[in-house]
Amino acid sequence: MKFTPLDAAFVARIRAGGPDANGLPAETAVSTGGGTPCRSCLHDVPEGEEFLICAARPFPTLQPYAETGPIFLCKAECVPWQDDGVPPIMTTSPDYLIKGYTADHRIRYGTGQVVKAGDLAREVQIRLSDPLLAYVDVRSARNNCFQSRVVRLGDKPPDIR
């Protein structure tokens, strides 16, 4: 399995002042050092560094299951997450919400669950063993903010709008 960052074209568009999923430019804030998970590098934005707040809809088209919500991005260019394993931003909360989606980007009922951070990789892998699932989204268990999409090794995640 592979945890993936947001689509690089979406991130570049936001950093260049382009519209987010709500058609608005991103807001700028300064990180206090924690609780500012960048959805590109999948690390917290370092304390004192500027970051962008924008709306993202991590689905290729509008449809009932295409949730839109706030996300953070490093304002300065960062290296998109390419490593193996669970990214740093998914080790700082006690638990996370996971949901499995089919190839047509619909939630597969029965796959959603709040899981402990230490169980995240195992629970995602269990869901990805279901051939009817195309990917699993990881979200904040507290605020429902999108964190990362997890796909099987070799699969490409859908574009983010």
TrEMBL record:
Pfam family, one: DUF1203
Protein name: DUF1203 domain-containing protein
Organism of this sequence: Jannaschia faecimaris
Lineage: Bacteria, Pseudomonadati, Pseudomonadota, Alphaproteobacteria, Rhodobacterales
